[in-house]
Records
---
Amino acid sequence: MIRQIGVLTGGGDCPGLNAVIRAVVKTTLTQYGWRVSGIEDGFEGLVFNHTRPLKLEDVRGLLPRGGTILGTTNRGNPFSMRVPRGDHFETRDVSDQVVANFRALELDALIVIGGDGSLKIAHELIAKGLPIVGVPKTIDNDLMGTDITFGFDTALATATDAIDKLHTTAESHHRIMIVEVMGRNAGWIALEAGIAGSADAILIPEIPFRYEPLEAMIALRDRTGRKFSIIVVAEGALPVGGAEVYQAPARAGQLARLGGIGAEVALELERRTDREARTLVLGHLQRGGSPSAFDRLLATRFGAAAVHLIANRDFGKMVALHGWRVASFPIADAISKLKRVPPDGELVRTARDMGIVFGDETIERG
Amino acid sequence: MIRQIGVLTGGGDCPGLNAVIRAVVKTTLTQYGWRVSGIEDGFEGLVFNHTRPLKLEDVRGLLPRGGTILGTTNRGNPFSMRVPRGDHFETRDVSDQVVANFRALELDALIVIGGDGSLKIAHELIAKGLPIVGVPKTIDNDLMGTDITFGFDTALATATDAIDKLHTTAESHHRIMIVEVMGRNAGWIALEAGIAGSADAILIPEIPFRYEPLEAMIALRDRTGRKFSIIVVAEGALPVGGAEVYQAPARAGQLARLGGIGAEVALELERRTDREARTLVLGHLQRGGSPSAFDRLLATRFGAAAVHLIANRDFGKMVALHGWRVASFPIADAISKLKRVPPDGELVRTARDMGIVFGDETIERG
Amino acid sequence: MIRQIGVLTGGGDCPGLNAVIRAVVKTTLTQYGWRVSGIEDGFEGLVFNHTRPLKLEDVRGLLPRGGTILGTTNRGNPFSMRVPRGDHFETRDVSDQVVANFRALELDALIVIGGDGSLKIAHELIAKGLPIVGVPKTIDNDLMGTDITFGFDTALATATDAIDKLHTTAESHHRIMIVEVMGRNAGWIALEAGIAGSADAILIPEIPFRYEPLEAMIALRDRTGRKFSIIVVAEGALPVGGAEVYQAPARAGQLARLGGIGAEVALELERRTDREARTLVLGHLQRGGSPSAFDRLLATRFGAAAVHLIANRDFGKMVALHGWRVASFPIADAISKLKRVPPDGELVRTARDMGIVFGDETIERG
Amino acid sequence: MIRQIGVLTGGGDCPGLNAVIRAVVKTTLTQYGWRVSGIEDGFEGLVFNHTRPLKLEDVRGLLPRGGTILGTTNRGNPFSMRVPRGDHFETRDVSDQVVANFRALELDALIVIGGDGSLKIAHELIAKGLPIVGVPKTIDNDLMGTDITFGFDTALATATDAIDKLHTTAESHHRIMIVEVMGRNAGWIALEAGIAGSADAILIPEIPFRYEPLEAMIALRDRTGRKFSIIVVAEGALPVGGAEVYQAPARAGQLARLGGIGAEVALELERRTDREARTLVLGHLQRGGSPSAFDRLLATRFGAAAVHLIANRDFGKMVALHGWRVASFPIADAISKLKRVPPDGELVRTARDMGIVFGDETIERG
């Protein structure tokens, strides 16, 4: 029988986390009458027993607010945690402590709102017997098992708005403007914001690029009177052969010193063309802000659905969006591999139909 | 063999129309080398031979712009069109003229971007032998055969933003604020914006409402210190029994004089409670503005896909979004009935989980 | 010696009220060490002794939030207040009660954040001996003594954004779109949003209009291929002779039934031209939302300056913006008359330079 | 007698340039009947005779668009221009050519829309006899002679929006977030966006900072439960003694390698506290986007006023905003020195009233 559930947020900040928390609290309290315990700073809160009860008044006005009132951290893996021991720190497996605390806190179920990393931890805790349901969170949209999750739409809007803003300045100054967006392993934001923002080139991790097609595109645009270009680069994009080259420590250091792949592309294109190039790294801007209507709705549906999963004792699952329907999906399968952009899929093809260059094609300079 | 295609936009304005036109032109010209003829003001352009060639430079910068450069009208049904005859006007079937003009203009296929009404006309013209593909357009999201279409996301964002703005003024003045949004036959915008904007009640055509639950909700909120309420009303919402009552001419006139159902709800709630109520009719604001990133992307995909349908000679179909995949769907089936909000579906249930009232429930005043 | 001050917000809601409250609390507590008492729902709170202490934690996160945490009302005039007496209500002068409560609450000064109405009340209470400083609040920008006040910039942005959104729909449908904005006595919002939003005509209370120039403008635009028009109307705009006509009860009732002057203009222009006309009444949308950066800054400066005025015992003044400098101005002078748009001023002239019509000119239909 | 005027835009891109151009064209053509010649890419267009006539249809729809349709460049000083000579480039004074071209193009007056740099060039060309009026453009707001100019309000809104977005992510992750904004010589954007965005510290060129007060502020916030901080840094801000230190080539190189002062502050604060720090460099985002309503209005007024100055043959002046009135100001005086933030002024004092730290104070860690 369930009397109290816990809820935590793990991994990077994401618009909609608070909306999920609010939906969890509202659904639990008004539909089931259980109590909700908010666990602070991801799994760390279960290690150090940092929790607080969440009531209806704690979640009022929370829907439009970005961030998470519970706090989050990227460092809270209880299977390998840096904890104080005497006068120094050591890295230890404190997962048994987490299990013991879970019992001591009188929790009957746990909702883990998190991405790949947090869900892997959840998976291991499930193996230790904890009754957990997941709510997928990935601003990069690279998690398997759900067609999309909250936060991505807001990040996409922020990235597209930035590209819009750079258009006029690129055009006025006849410049190459490069926007580096999130996406270490998957280029979803770059691809979708690039199409929505009418970029001239999109560079993503899934399609290694060469500089020649970029040069040719710039030359071709020049010849037809458009003396500027917009290039959207996912932070994980790499030139052909780059995966090997960039692993070399000296080269990796050079890339980091430059400030990322966006800066490298700018440098190289200035070298190869007579245009000025400027880079904007959007960074944390993409994680912030009030969630879009779409994300508020999806986060609310996910939060409510997670509570219903618990009521059905359907543990080990995460809520998911399949098509436009809320469904569930085994956490074990969701963490098995990343969801990446299919290089030959309809989205990339549509981008090519619009004349967008990916750096893998052959282009005549016109 | 295809050498030239036509494209027209019909029915009400919708964010993303220009993005579709742009994608059609880019895909046609760069991928297939056919010509594109832009037909002005919906089917009227085919009646009066108002067309112009569309080239790449005509669609530059068009992606972020709302509206349609081709113009549109709600009055252009060639099967029943008001046309001049001598010194007066008469209503006639000019569809044969449309077919003749289509041939005379040397069009080999036609893309109709439109909603229920325009697709019905397209369906009849297909029966007369015209090779047509459709692109579904409905800001209300009530068209069968596609999970969603462009424009809805932007309208949803506009409605949610308005609700956000009214929250603080409602709270500061302890008022009931009523927002009337689009949705004559289906309550999608009201439902989704209501959840996303944290409304206290949502009234939609699919769920006839009574005033007692609204009163009770207001009283209950009062008792817990929240002396304001936000109610989102679809323009087609009706009280229980309203369908009959409002058909009576006198009553319909009264409703129109009041300024719609939102104004009536305000009047009635002021009468039943001691709170002031104010109404905002969002109206055309929902059709305007730059399309959201989501809508720009979807409109672009639809435009490109429509051209590919033509290349495959897959006429009689419209492009569609099934889940997150672009697919196609027979126009004949799309126009057979409207897609309405399932009153017992997951979305309505989620809204109820959030404590949102639909006016069909029994509520104790606490 | 000052130990505690009170602060209240009166009149209509306005973006930036919370920012003023926050600045008052922060400045008072950290710079002077006095206490702050928040008075609820305008002067009503002084009649019924509804107050609460305001501490730093009460104003955290308040800067970007619209509305007022203190509540406000348009009905709280203590010199003429509807108060319960036995089993009925009566209208009475309870200002002595306000003075007595002020003493009993141990307040040493009072900050009144309000417009014309609230400052008039403040003025009368000053005459009764209360040490009051004012913070001017008028979303219409019609208050004398300050070049501008907070809230106007946000309302202007909302109105301009609405006009932007209607542009594409007006153009797509070849319609006349009419936007009715706030401004009962002064046309500042209509004038500035009209220029910023590229309206074709602006109708304001300061310039009575005729329909002929509007007709001529529409005809002229038609002839040059622009088959749509945008007209911005202040709610207080009137046709030539309208002031008399509209005072007649039957006519006033007719105007109210139509839904305001915007609806009347639409009706009349549909009658006089062959174009469809649609009206949007922006209404409360203009009072809501997060204050713009400009308004947050100005509200913060005003809040801090009001506290410094108290420290200088400079009572009977309101803070004001003269040019770009924060100054002070006698409340007695501020309430003596309204600040209206000079019909021959540079702003109106600039609008005319842009080709915008005010309805008082003679235009040839081209 | 005036028959034709020229207009050019110089220096960095800025929201509102197109609005000025539109107002110049509309006012000139409809009020005076002169012709307008658009000069491309700043003064370069006068060197190479790159001009085109501007008609009413060229400026339609231009008001809300960022950037400049005339193009601009930072490299076009005719008194020291890199021009081709035979097979190489050389830097030469081509100002006589500019004067000759001005005559040959049959221009009777010239409007220079530009900042400090462009107005200095204009000043020298005036000395050579050209009849020039200026329109001040400075996104940093550091130009003497005008209280404010267009573009600043939009940049301020963009910077404030970014700070808003970073708030939730800073709070969720308990991080120090540093936002680097424009302002090489003057801290206006940092100061105003910092106040409007509720920053905890603001670092500007006018107030050299030490790290100790920042550390103390962070420690004090920690002790009161706010485990995050937002710091806004103008790109030209320097630590105490930094002006000397950073001039040393090695150090300047180090700063550039780090990616600017924002990155250095992050590095240093991570070293001095146990918090993570992240930097966002807003960069070109601040120059882009649709101008705010305020900027559209101001740009329109400036454009119209510049034409009226020409009609009055009031050359050698630039238009200016004095208080809220459009006035004029000698270009010679405007370029004599920069307008910087007064360290003891009311704005800085207000920021301090709000508890914002500038790095020059003594703070106890609580």
---
Amino acid sequence: MVAEIISIGDELLIGQIVNTNASFIAAELNLAGVVVKRITTIGDTRDEILSALNQASGYADIVVITGGLGPTNDDITKNTLCEYFDSHLVFDQKSFDNIFRLFGNRGIEISVTNRMQAELPHNCKALRNPLGTAPGMWFEKKGVHYFSLPGVPFEMKKMLLDEIIPELQKLGVIKPIVHKTLLTIGIGESALADRIRDWEEQLPANIKLAYLPEPGIVKLRLSSYNSETANPEKQIEAEIGKLKELIPELIFGSNKDTLQEVVGKLLKAAKSSVSTAESCTGGYIAHLITSVPGSSVYYKGSVVAYDNAVKTGSLGVAEELIIRHGAVSEEVVKAMAQGVKQVLKTDYAIATSGVAGPDGGTAEKPVGTTWVAIATPEKVFTQKFLLGDDRERNIRRAALLALNQLRKELIK
Amino acid sequence: MVAEIISIGDELLIGQIVNTNASFIAAELNLAGVVVKRITTIGDTRDEILSALNQASGYADIVVITGGLGPTNDDITKNTLCEYFDSHLVFDQKSFDNIFRLFGNRGIEISVTNRMQAELPHNCKALRNPLGTAPGMWFEKKGVHYFSLPGVPFEMKKMLLDEIIPELQKLGVIKPIVHKTLLTIGIGESALADRIRDWEEQLPANIKLAYLPEPGIVKLRLSSYNSETANPEKQIEAEIGKLKELIPELIFGSNKDTLQEVVGKLLKAAKSSVSTAESCTGGYIAHLITSVPGSSVYYKGSVVAYDNAVKTGSLGVAEELIIRHGAVSEEVVKAMAQGVKQVLKTDYAIATSGVAGPDGGTAEKPVGTTWVAIATPEKVFTQKFLLGDDRERNIRRAALLALNQLRKELIK
């Protein structure tokens, strides 16, 4: 089964809002075993709608249209649908009852425009919209199913999940495509590709691999497209098992995991606490850790030691160390980790010191030079990273790499 | 001028990522006076790319393609572009120099796949990608301009803003439209609209006003669409002058300003320093401040006091205060601001304490309750905010509102 998503809305074409509807629908259709071949975003005009419908009908089994059904603009969309499906508008009592339930029940007068929302093409099946006044429409033409849904995200989502997908499943669209995404850190996309080439080449033909890079992280998505495989989940897990043997230290999680969640779970499991002492990351590690609900169980706090006086005053770093080695040095970052661990009384500590840029680089310590130290109950260890020259990315990458150092220690 | 945006990527079609690239490009083209007629999202296959190009060439003057240029998948896209533009790949030394600058300079070996990224169709103009290894491509065919850009958002954005739009303006392909955006904080969209209604109604017909709300901030964009106005900049500035008289305290900057930059400039001008003591914001204020290059001049550091023991131990907050009033209270946030100002020896200090959620709320202090304190050289003052129930948004809004309290004090 192949689908097309058509998003109608001028606000999408001027970039005022991001098309989250299309990605939501695409994800849900995929889970239900439908391949989305194309997403088309158009303005609310007859010609554009007809052209998109004509195009989609050429290859799609399912067409999901969103938008263009608000009380002030549904005339174009609905009249165009009538034209395309050779229909005319008729009053739909059940849809009006829904509008009455939403408005009339609360004593709000139903306007003419709202009343007109209950007029639907005579040959569609009306789809109930429990959260809004615009009903959806389901047409069938030459074996293709067309759904027209309101553009308001929470209305559309409910209708898609509660009615359309279950109905499509009843019609036999039940061959799920199985996806699993592995999350890696500590290696770039092309180095990773080089390292896992042999594994990639031996993948069964029905499994597709996608590289999804983000700053500091490369996601690997495996998708099983073969409906005849008895157990696609098991097949994917088997391939993931091989990959985990190949690059065990690089994989930190799967699907929607975040590194800060993974580290948090490890700390919770170990009944351990952590603190941070941040120079170049400037509080970003603290922010990542505290963005996880419930992090106060294992996270005590941070000393953001931007100024050297804070490093000496609040973290007890010896001034001599800074004078002798500079703030961006193995010696200082080590002392920062030891200092914050002691001052905040935690089991573990993370410290960072680096040149985030754009200024402050030298020949010896160019922009991107970053030291990370991890203090454990027994020891302190350090790692040097050479990052890039973009400040924002350096901060993010340094924070993720520092968290990853702690993660690797916690899973030992 | 009419444009089409073509987004290439399987991750878009399975709904794994939201197409923020398309909305960014649409917004920027719109600002430049280009009408985006259609956005098409397709998979990374020859047939889909050719079909999208054929369709776009039928009506568009400008076609912007993103994605399909990563080191592991650029062969399909580039070979298809060669086919469409009747070209063949040749090695581009300048693009290779860029890859060498990004990798080789740091002693990282350049892989074969990375080296192949420097191979480009012979009849395109290579577009430099300062932040990544994939160069962009600019083709011209029958008067239509085609741009192929990497899908990594920050790489694409830089190339679009720094090179493509200015070049198209220089060539006269697009006419500059004058825009200015004012940034407001401390008021919601509809309350702001009510307050400036009279001003909005008296705007000249050629000036369009757009409300662009974001968490914590509402942007007001004024655009002059009439090229016949002798001096559109001056006309817009005159209207802005009136608005500034109407809501002086709500406007903190314009265009691409950020609140943290504005506060940083004010601190620099006052030759003053600041520190932060963060509980509910968990280091996010520190992160915002230190995301500004050169912030070390005025920013000394932060104590992220997530645990109450850190509030008493590192900030000198009396334990009795916490027991009596709770950590989320005017008394405690005041003591935190005073404490960090003293410990980190700064002129000003910001402190936050609140219930970010989703847990931790009570009847008296529901999720969203947030106290902010500002310590100045002379005094400490506080403000209570009742935010929403979304943790991420609460953290961001609390941080911005706290920074704004300091800003208002600094401009007194």
